[in-house]
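Researcher: Quick sanity check before group meeting.
Model: Go ahead. Protein one:
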Amino acid sequence: MTEFAWPPLRPAKLVWPAPGWVPPTKSQPTSPPWTVSLWKDLTRPGDGHRRVARDKGRGEAAVKLLHATGVDAFPVPLDVTSDVSVAEAAVLIERQSGRLDVLVNNAGISGEMGPGWVQDPTTLDLDVVRKVVDTNVYGVIRVTNAMLPLLRRASSPPIVNISSSVGSVTWQADPNIEVGPIMAAYSPTKSYLNAVTVHYARQFAGTDILINAACPGLVATDFTGYQGRPAQEAAATPIRLAALPDGGPTGSFFNDDGVIPW
């Protein structure tokens, strides 16, 4: 792998959660502006952009926003927890464009939380844990494997798994680093996702497929109750990783400052 410079972008750290903040009552996928920020900045001539969403209406709304910025996009309904839905999405993309240039695995849920966004490991509902793992980890594996034939038709296709700094076991174990509240259902799924990312990178060794994990920070979407930084700012690191040159880093975990320890 060639040397790769990663100039820091991150502003001062956010306080998370903000004082007095009440978390959302339901776990939902992130809102359209977050992925719109990703895709409008990844436009390349000749690309037929796809925008996937679990909710058909949200996907269509996001595509309209992309069209308004001059991006040629079409919606792809996708439930990452459904084998049938993922297979249908792959068929639709193949029919519409014949290949997939970039895959950003962005779907994620937190699971039910207590006050202060805490998930106490001593009282966890295992059904909640299973649901979070199914979306945040199994969903990434399910989608990535279904899309690989389409990705292999593209030139140097990058895969970006949207992770979180709360998935850094190194940081979680360091009492001198603030990584947010105890989230015993959500945070371990990001650690799991990071480990899966490394194994994909090992499997892709010797190919032109690059795969990395990205922490966008706390993003102001419905997932966080609109606490955090603007989606346009948070998209910077995923965009960098989705536009890596040949020989760029792979099997690593990044935020705006650079590499995050596992």
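Researcher: Fine. The other one?
Model: Protein two, sequence then structure:
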Amino acid sequence: MEGYREGITVLSTVHGVAYKVMWDRYTGAFVAEIQAFADAVVNNKEAPVTGEDGLYPVLMAAAATKSLHEDRPVKISEIE
């Protein structure tokens, strides 16, 4: 497997590239997000991602956590 080194536990592979942790796979996306946000602040532009865009993953995680603790499906509307 290309990119594989002996002694590393591979948790996932995408297109033949091995990733040990999720952050390895998404580092480029995180860097691009921060650069776009910094550009918006420095140049007094609207940020490409809004606070509301960030709210939905938080609500999803809260619903998933509640679902785990209560052993039942939880709708996001129960969290909002």
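Researcher: One line on it for the slide.
Model: The beta strands are 12-14, 17-19.
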